[in-house]
Design a protein that fits this description.
246 residues, alpha/beta, 2 domains, six-stranded mixed beta sheet, four-stranded antiparallel beta sheet, 10 helices, 37% helix, binds adenosine-5'-triphosphate, ABC_transptr_urea_ATP-bd_UrtD
Length: 246
Amino acid sequence: MSQLLEVSGVSVSFDGFKALNNLSFSIRNRELRAVIGPNGAGKTTFMDVVTGKTKPDEGRVLWGEPPISLLGKSESTIAMAGVGRKFQRPTVFEDQTVEANLMMALRKPRSPFAVLFFKPSAEDRDRVAEMAETIGLAQALTRKSGELSHGQKQWLEIGMLLAQDPQLLLVDEPAAGMTTAEREKTTDLLREAAKTRAVVVVEHDMEFVRRLGCKVTVLHEGSVLAEGSIDHVTKNENVIEVYLGR
Ligand SMILES: Nc1ncnc2c1ncn2[C@@H]1O[C@H](COP(=O)(O)OP(=O)(O)OP(=O)(O)O)[C@@H](O)[C@H]1O
């Protein structure tokens, strides 16, 4: 597996406070990675830097093979380069059906003309059906998205992001507000997604992270405190002190 994203020596300050402090780590192609750490550790700021929302004061963010710099690129350019981001709260079109939401998310020309006269092809319908199957909503295609449970809305939004086929999917606290059954299904979905792309999951729920069964990066005060398997990082004295032991 080759390198997909390399963050190196990245620092971000807000009014003199270092939200990221010489942060360095990398993600490989088709890798599932969990990022954990106490409140204020810099997890959101890391995602903001990768997606072009926040410009770092220093450091490098390299993407792809051969590597190109993502610094200075707009959020839309970075999204089109293959970085998808799922925010914590679901943002689906509630008065549209599951099928319509997925259809809108397919990679298509976005001019007003194209959208107005968009007629789904058989291939588009197949892709939507396949995506609905993947996210466990095949039986809910004709339902209004607003009627779905919180967990189902989260899966729908993950499906909408997957429909755009990103090479890297950043997912912020997917388990928040979910039932135990929904959490289990979400770990399965993310593990499945990571077979065809890299998936980085920011999460506080340690049981959820354990179920993901992947390498874990622990952030603290804007840099990497520890990295490795869940057993490795949960035994780390520093991690216990700043995060787990609280
Ligand atoms: N736009 C901003 N202006 C000022 N300070 C900010 C800004 N964004 C983040 N910070 C500060 O930077 C630090 C890192 O924040 P960040 O949101 O990245 O942490 P986090 O690890 O995502 O935390 P949480 O788990 O609570 O979401 C925090 O102390 C936060 O208050």
